[in-house]
Predict the 3D structure of the following.
Amino acid sequence: MIRTQIQLTETQSKKLREIANQKGISLSELIRQSVDNFLEGEGAHSDKMNRQRAKEIAGQFSGPHDLSVNHDQYWE
């Protein structure tokens, strides 16, 4: 493992220590688990958000209705 130093607000530190105590784990372990959960969810979240954004802008721009199918014809 790599030792890393971070700074937390007093409120963050207090709440995290309370959660760690309730779970019976160290503050370090709680933070490692939280980072893992964030990293696992971040990729799925980003893909989901990108798809949602694409759906929101679909049809919002003008152009030939068959551009996605016949795109090669429009290069000339």
User: Anything to note?
Assistant: The CA atoms of residues 68 and 74 lie 10 Å apart.
